[in-house]
Amino acid sequence: MKSITLLLAVLTFVSTFSHSTAQKKVYSWKDRNGVLVFSDTPRPGATEVKLNTQNLTMPATDTSILDSSPNVTPVNFKVTIASPENEATVRENTGSVYVTTRISPRFATGFKVQLFVDGTPLGVASSSTTFALREVNRGEHTLQAKLFNENNKLVSVSPVSTFFMHRASVLNSN
Fold first, then answer.
1. How far apart are CA 127 and CA 149, in angstroms?
2. 85-132: per-residue pLDDT in tens?
3. Which of 79, 94, 144, 148 would be a feasible disulfide site paired with 156, CB 3.0-4.6 Å?
C-alpha cells in the first residue's frame, strides 16, 4: 500500500510540474543595440517564441580560458661543473684554470651563477657560465656552482668537483 501511495504522489508531482511548465511562454525582442533578448515576461514589440519541447538545455561551455592563474609547471634546473672534469689534473705553470659550468634545461634570462673555489665564493654571482681562475696554488682544490633565479633565490647547487693543480716547483727553477 505504501508503494502505491508513493507512486501516486510522484505521478501527481510530475503531472503538476509538467502542467505548470507547459503554460510558460517565452518572448523575444531586439534591444537598442540590436541584441536578441529572451524573457518569460512580455513587453511591447515582443513576439512569442514557439517551443517544440519542454526540456531546454544549454550546452556546457569551457570556461578554463577564463582562469586568471596560469597553470605553470615548475622547472627543475640543474647546474654542474663541466670543466675541469672531476678528479682531473690541470698542468699549468701560471696557475690559470678555466672553469665551465653547465645549466640544464637551459640558462634562463635573469639567472646568475656563483662559483665557489675551496668553499669560498669567487667574486659575485654572474650571468656568465665560464670563470677564469688565476694563480691557483699547487695541490687539490674543490669547485662548486650555485644557480640563482631572477629573484636571487637559490634554485640549484652543483655537486662538489675536485681538481688537482700541477705546477712546476719554485725550488726546481735552476
1. 10
2. 999 999 998 999 999 999 998 877 889 999 999 999 998 999 999 999
3. 79
CATH number at residue 139: 2.60.40.10
Number of domains in the chain: 2
**pTM tops 0.85:** no
C-alpha 111/C-alpha 155 separation (Å) is 9
Cβ atoms within 10 Å, residue 79: 24
Say what percent of the chain tops pLDDT 70. Answer: 71
Q: Are residues 85 and 157 in the same domain?
A: yes
The candidate with the shortest Cα–Cα distance to 89, out of 170, 162, 173, 158, is 162
SS3 165: strand
Same domain, 40 and 117: no
Grid coordinates belonging to 88: 682531473
- Which helix (H) or strand (E) covers residue 16, if one does? helix 2-22
Distinct helix (H) and strand (E) counts, the chain:
1, 12
Calpha distance 97→54 (Å, rounded): 83
| Sheet with strand 47-49: strands edge to edge | 36-39, 26-30, 47-49
